Amino acid sequence: MSKRAVLEVIALDVEDAVAAQAGGADRLELVTDMAADGLSPAPATVAGIRAAVHIDLRVMLRLADGFAAGDVDRLVRVARDLREAGADQFVLGFLDAGGGVDLAAVERVVRALDGCAWTFHRAIDRAADRDALRKQLADLPGLDTYLTAGAADGVDEGLPTLAAEAARQGEPGYGQQLLVGGGLRLDHVPRLRAAGIEAFHVGGAARPSGWQGPVSAAAVAEWRRVLDGR
Fold it and tell me: Which terms does the record give in the GO molecular function aspect (predicted)?
């Protein structure tokens, strides 16, 4: 384990954010409406969380369930509103009907981010060709992370793909950090760390009461302990 792993936790509100930070999270993914798998939060929510914690925030840019971009003009407006609220890191990812990256939509939204760091999220796990997607996006400004389970059905199925992609780090299209999430469990961590993966994303695993309950600082602390090898 060469260095401290990044632990990113999904937060819906200030209470979640404060608990995640207290438990040892390095970064938060800010969303709303997990029934739709996470949509863009309100600017006021982002501003409130930014005022309450000091760790990094990545804010979702997504208007509806699924991986289609939808109304790109509105997405651009939402991105600008969120930036005005204090967001300076983002999460996004759009596919076309054939499972290819919707490059036109991604490029338009990224231009509105004006150099902000961003994650391409689990849309990659639904892509028709992961390698082609990575190579199409490789040179877009600000892209530094892929959030992925390695497979649409989650980490259990995706472990071989995650290990293979980690081994290609530094090749064209593989310069971004792998952030593993989607059915991630603590027992996956040793194998992923052994493969060289250094970033982990948890949502429901940080909520003992499920999505109707808040993030637990103790649950986050347990993830921190395991990731640190303690």
Answer: copper ion binding
Please tell me the predicted confidence (pLDDT) of residue 1: 40
What is the distance, to the nearest Å, from the Cα of residue 199 to the centroid of all Cα atoms in its chain?
10
The CATH code of the domain that includes 21 is 3.20.20.380
Q: What share of the chain is helix, strand, coil (3-state, %, to 5)?
A: 40, 20, 40
> How much is the average pLDDT of 104-133?
97
In a domain, 50, yes or no: yes
Q: Give the 3-state DSSP-derived string for the chain, with helices as H, strands as E and coil as C.
A: CCCCCEEEEEECCHHHHHHHHHHCCCEEEECECHHHCCECCCHHHHHHHHHHCCCEEEEECCCCCCCCCCCHHHHHHHHHHHHHCCCCEEEECCECCCCCECHHHHHHHHHHHCCCEEEECHHHHHCCCHHHHHHHHCCCCCEEEEEECCCCCCHHHHHHHHHHHHHCCCCCCCCCEEEECCCCCHHHHHHHHHCCCCEEEECHHHCCCCCCCCCCHHHHHHHHHHHCCC
Predicted confidence at residue 194, as pLDDT, reads 96
| 1 lies in some domain | no
Percent of the chain with pLDDT over 70: 99
* Enclosing domain of residue 178: 6-227
Per-residue confidence (pLDDT) for residue 219, from 0 to 100: 98
Mean pLDDT of the region 182-199:
97
* 106, part of any domain: yes
Per-residue pLDDT tens digits for 20-43: 999 999 999 999 999 889 999 999
**Number of domains into which the chain is organized:** 1
